[in-house]
Each structure stands twice: as structure tokens, then as C-alpha cells.
Specification:
Largest sheet of chain A: 6 strands, antiparallel
Shape of chain A: globular
CATH superfamily of one domain in chain A: Jelly Rolls
Order of helices and strands of chain A: HHEEEEEHEHHHHHH
CATH architecture of one domain in chain A: Sandwich
CATH topology of one domain in chain A: Jelly Rolls
CATH class of one domain in chain A: Mainly Beta
Number of helices of chain A: 9
Distance between the termini of chain A: 45 Å
Strand content of chain A: 15-25%
Oligomer: homodimer
Number of strands of chain A: 6
Structural class of chain A: alpha+beta
Chain lengths: 193, 193
DNA sequence: CGGATCGTTGATCAACTTCAACGGTCGTGG
DNA sequence: CCACGACCGTTGAAGTTGATCAACGATCCG
């Protein structure tokens, strides 16, 4: 259960055995069946969730009832409504499971306590958030700068695993496109533009 | 020069006087005149830059030559091509000054060294990046979910200072709109929709 | 004063959405 | 084990939003 987490952390900072077992005490394990919710819009998001197995999605539902994907998280990724988690405000995202999943959850209070007891974890999360921010910044510019086709090609190049593992209509939503549009784009690409 | 930086840091972590003077040694001051560049696309971004006075913009230029704003940074904000800075890759963003500015720069190497000597700075940047990530996540969903008019209203509500301080055509670009479109939207809003 | 920059307005256009229908596949319950 | 419904991707036709192109007036600044 903790193997995936530790190997992920150890890529960024080193941990002693004592720190490892201390660290474990701050987490709760949770299993989520396909289609079960981890978080629903309107709640407060109390956890950062590490996915040790499976696949989660986080998405927003607008007033018209349309879903807009925020991100997908599989083995080795974190998921949360980070805004809600950080500022203790109402969540804008739903999180549910696309596949049966095994998670490790940590609350805001435990994160606080853990980083005080193991300052290296501030460093781990600093690097994690720094990298996520870097990626998200590029994605945001891409979203505003490029055509639907360009965006899809960029994604397919930079994240082929996502395209293999996630249904096409959800990929479309992730890119801010109607599912029909993505279908047509793929057809055009297959026809050599 | 360092007053603004310290007051910003002290909102998130405490620092002793020794830590403060140690911290100073990792930064370089730099002045930037209006329209001068801090970073140009294609270079490596070597710095995180803290704005103690003035206003910076960071933006991407696409193959068609069109500019796409990434963010604006004024007193109390950081600016960088964080992807380039983090991964030592070629920058996608240009950064230049919209107003005469006073900056404090820190290199990747100095950031590394500073966080090792003052672990609390890992915590500071962890919180800083966590908050930025939270904001950027919401902005990205907003960008994919809402109409041009909704996006503008959200921005005007959440960040009125930006609208006061930044020219309208750059606001348009920040929202991923043509300047003419934003002009028409504002007209419609003024006419009571 | 003169040029550059910025916002505005009108007309046209293109990209993407919406709506509707259909065929294939998968998984579940009878 | 088969059948049915749900889900997913595809295709076509029509509609809409926002982009583009062009022209003009206002303001700022040197």
C-alpha cells in the first residue's frame, strides 16, 4: 500500500526508516469502487489523496449541467480540490473513480503536523507543487493559444498514457471540446489531415 | 527593497533576524525599465523574481505571432517561467515590464542552497506554490467552461485591481479573447446585457 | 505637433457547438 | 448464456460564438 507512495517520495527527498513509519501514521487508507465519489461539489475537501492503485478523475459541473474535466490521477499521482483543501472553502470539483482504486488520504491537520515533524515533507510538497504548477501553467496557455487539433496533438505527444486509459469523451472534456469535435479531429488526423 | 519580501514571507512562516540576513545574501536586486525584458522565449529561465515595486507581465508568442498572456505580477508577487526554471528547459514565456520595476532575483542554485540552510523556506514556497496551483486550477477550468462574458465577469469580481492596472487589450489576451471581443462584452454589460 | 498606442464599431468569416440519429460493444441480470 | 440496455464513438446538418479584417477617433507622450 505504501510502497508506491514511498518510491514516489524518495525520488524527491530521502527518508529514514523512522521517518517512514512516522509518516505512515498520518495517512488513512481508503478503497474506492468504480463510480464511487471521493468528493462532491459543495463539500469541503478535507484530503489530499495519493493514488496507489486505480484511476480517479476530478471535474467541475457548470450551471448548464455540463462536465469539465480538471485532471486524471492514476498510480503515483495526487488528487484533491486543492483550492478547497488549502482555503477551507467549498469544493468546485467532484472526484470519483474511473477504475477500482486504492488511496492514501491525509487531512489538512495531519499534513500540517507531518510537515512540522518531518520538514523534508515540506520540501517534497514544495517540489511536487512547483512541478504541478509548471505543468498547469503550460496547459493554461495551450488552452488559450491553440486550435482544437493542435491541443489534441500536444496532449497525445506529451501524455499518450492518458489517451490509452481514459475514454475519449472525457479526453474531449479535458481539452475543453465537444466529444463530436474530438471525434472529427481524430478522423482528420487519420486521413492525413 | 527587502521590506516587501519579508512582509510577504512572514505571512506564511516566521524568520529570525539571522535568517533574514542570511536570506538576503541569496538574492540579487535588479531594476527593470518599462518595456525591458527580464526573460525572452528560447532562453533558459534562471531566476525566480520577486516584484517589490512595479508590474511585470509574462506571455507566450505563438507561431502566428500572437501574444497570449500568462500572468501579471506586481508588488508582492513572484514571476518566472516556472517550467523552464524547474526543469532547466527552454522558456516558453517572455517576461517584460509594464511599469518601471524593482526586483529581487534568486537563481535555482541559490534557491536550493537557501532551502537547505533555511528549511522554513521550503515551507514558504510549498505554501506559495500550493496557493498558486489552487488558483491556476480554477482558472483553467474557467477557461474551458465559461463563455467570454462569464470569464470577464469572474475576473472583474475576483481581481478588480488587475483590471484597473493593466491595459484592456492585455486583459483580453489573458482571458484568451480578441481585444474587439472584450470591448463588445464591456459595452453589452454597460448596456445592462 | 505628430506618431504610436489603444479602444471602438461594423461586416464578414471560421471554428467549434449543438442537435439528432445510428451502430457497435460491453456488462449485467434474467 | 443470451438479450437488453447503457454507454460510447461517429456522422451529418444547422446554428452560434467569437475571430478576423478594416477603418476611425481618442489619448498619451516625446
Amino acid at each position: 500500500m505504501f510502497d508506491v507512495l514511498f518510491s514516489h517520495i524518495l525520488k524527491k527527498v530521502s527518508l529514514t526508516e523512522e521517518e517512514k513509519s512516522l509518516l505512515k501514521s498520518f495517512f488513512n487508507a481508503k478503497n474506492l469502487r468504480k463510480k464511487e465519489f471521493l468528493l462532491q461539489e459543495g463539500e469541503i475537501c478535507h484530503y489530499l489523496s495519493f493514488v496507489s492503485k486505480g484511476l480517479l478523475r476530478s471535474y467541475h459541473i457548470d450551471e448548464r449541467g455540463d462536465e469539465h474535466m480538471n485532471l486524471f490521477a492514476w498510480e503515483g499521482w495526487w488528487s484533491s480540490d486543492i483550492y478547497s483543501f488549502s482555503f477551507n472553502e467549498i469544493a468546485q470539483f467532484n472526484i470519483d473513480a474511473l477504475e477500482d482504486s486504492e488511496l492514501l488520504l491525509i487531512t489538512r491537520e495531519n499534513l500540517e503536523e507531518m510537515t512540522l515533524q518531518i520538514p523534508k515533507m515540506d520540501r517534497y510538497f514544495r517540489i511536487l507543487f512547483q512541478n504541478s504548477l509548471a505543468t498547469k501553467e503550460r496547459r493554461l496557455v495551450s488552452s488559450n493559444s491553440y486550435t482544437a487539433k493542435e491541443k489534441y496533438i500536444q496532449l497525445a505527444d506529451s501524455n499518450p498514457q492518458m489517451i490509452q486509459r481514459v475514454p475519449q469523451n472525457l479526453i474531449a472534456s479535458y481539452l475543453g471540446l465537444a466529444p463530436e469535435t474530438l471525434s472529427r479531429i481524430k478522423k482528420n488526423i487519420a486521413l492525413g489531415k
